[in-house]
Amino acid sequence: MQNNLAELHKRREQARAGGGAKRIAAQHAKGKLTARERLDILLDEGSFEEFDMFVEHRSHDFGMEKQRVPGDGVVTGWGTVNGRVIYVFSKDFTVIGGSLSKAQAEKIVKVQEMAARNGAPIVGLFDAGGARIQEGVDSLAGYADIFLQNVLSSGVIPQISVIMGPCAGGDVYSPAMTDFIFMVKDTSYMYVTGPDVVKTVINEDVSHEDLGGYRVHALKSGVADGAYENDLEALTQVRRLIDFLPSSNRQAPPVRESFDIPDRDERSLDTLVPANPNKPYNMKELILKVSDEADFFEISPDYAKNIIIGFARMDGEPVGIVANQPQVLAGVLDIDSSRKAARFVRFCDAFGIPIITLVDVPGFMPGTKQEQGGLIKHGAKLLFAYAEATVPKITVITRKAYGGAFDVMSSKNIRGDFNYAWPTAEIAVMGPKQAVEIIFRNELGDPEKLAAREAEYKAHFASPFVAASRGYIDDIIMPHGTRRRIVRALKSLKGKELKNPWKKHDNIPL
Ligand code: HXC
Fold this sequence. Notes:
Blueprint: H1 2-16, H2 21-29, H3 35-42, E1 49-51, E2 74-81, E3 84-91, H4 102-118, E4 122-128, H5 137-153, E5 159-168, H6 173-176, E6 180-184, E7 189-191, H7 195-202, H8 208-212, H9 214-221, E8 227-228, H10 231-242, H11 283-290, E9 297-299, E10 307-314, E11 317-324, H12 335-350, E12 355-361, H13 368-372, H14 375-388, E13 393-402, H15 403-408, E14 418-421, E15 426-428, H16 432-439, H17 447-461, H18 465-470, E16 475-476, H19 482-492
Parallel strand pairs: 3-4, 4-5, 5-6, 5-7, 6-8, 11-12, 12-13, 13-14, 13-15, 14-16
Antiparallel strand pairs: 1-2, 2-3, 9-10, 10-11
Helix pairs in contact: 4-5, 12-14, 16-17
Bound molecules: hexanoyl-coenzyme A.
């Protein structure tokens, strides 16, 4: 018996040592934590239970039988975040570069299946060199097994990926099919094919950073939903995000006791919108002032900044917020902002999180670049996402709601539940100047007459009253009472029941 205990102890120590002291030191020297250190930060203290720490690969090719490390380059299991169960896998770069063997894939699939079955989120920490080259097609099959689980779990449990080192080849597609991807600045990069292949195939010289660093994905491509300074910050922010999310689509979002006043007035909001309709203001001010304790977890803060998305709480209840940002491109809807918001709306709808939409939008971005890039299909994604969403939807128009963008931004006619406007709202087919230049084209040579027409149009349409008189707006509210009205609306929608017609699945314009 004593011998068995000693053997277990020895084997556990061996597995915990991963690739050994030298490789761990090299990992630290790059500013990265090890796979196990990362889990210690992500999970509540002492809550981690490991699975499959003795699993080894079964390859004999290319001398691999001499390179067996228990655990085989990934640490898997479950633990808790602020008391709630999550499943995890954490790639260990110190073991054969964290590369994916068939045995490693089986470990990952096991926790993916358990997370889905038990209705708990799964978080994957990536730091690896892609397919285990020595295993060939077995590794490819292993990836496919993981991808399949990603797809089957999509919309069932929240799936979160954190890129904390290299993430290349097969490793990128699993994160791509999860709900959120976060990166660590300067130590992580993700790409389908690395700089060497790029050089061979298209003779282009490019660094890892320029090909797939955080500046590429969190700022330009939109592949990543955020980037953090270091491992510690990334993992603590993921803990924060998990607090807003339900464990699965079978459970309600987690309500937390609020220390904020539900009917708190915010007098400063009465002067948020400038008198000049062309002057920008910061929509984030409104978000922070209406949210519980000004706590807002922003998603993709550095990509398509003309739209703001993220999670907040209203009297303790998680909500998703979508808001045009007049400070960037006047808050216009373009390809990137439409895609960004559409995916977020679908996430909220899949997981029963009510959506608050704050509108100040001059329309869709005109021009050849946008049209050639497929603005019609991309803009339609957001329209589609809002229209199909059955969660409670509350809309507040603060200023402009022009043209098709009025329809798109959770309007009454696509099943907005509560549609409010501030007295400063301007709801019209287009801005007054453009409108009169079209309908009074024959008066273009007479600036005085045109100015009078513009004033007339403005007085008639650039207000919320016409829309309210037709019932497209449920009420015109004082800006300072916005939080109180949203909180009340959410409470009144607790019993909302709405189902879309049966279908195998829809055909969203991808
Ligand atoms: C086997 C690998 C490996 C891999 C790294 N290693 N990647 N072993 N298969 N894919 C091993 C290295 O041989 C090395 O072992 C150890 O891990 C550490 O790697 P280094 O190269 O020393 O580290 P570093 O200099 O930091 O470079 C990291 C790296 C580089 C940029 C990720 O390792 C690299 O380019 N790896 C290959 C990336 C790749 O092309 N993967 C295949 C993608 S194809 P020793 O013992 O020497 O220390 C793919 C297709 C799947 O994934 C498609 C499915 C849809």
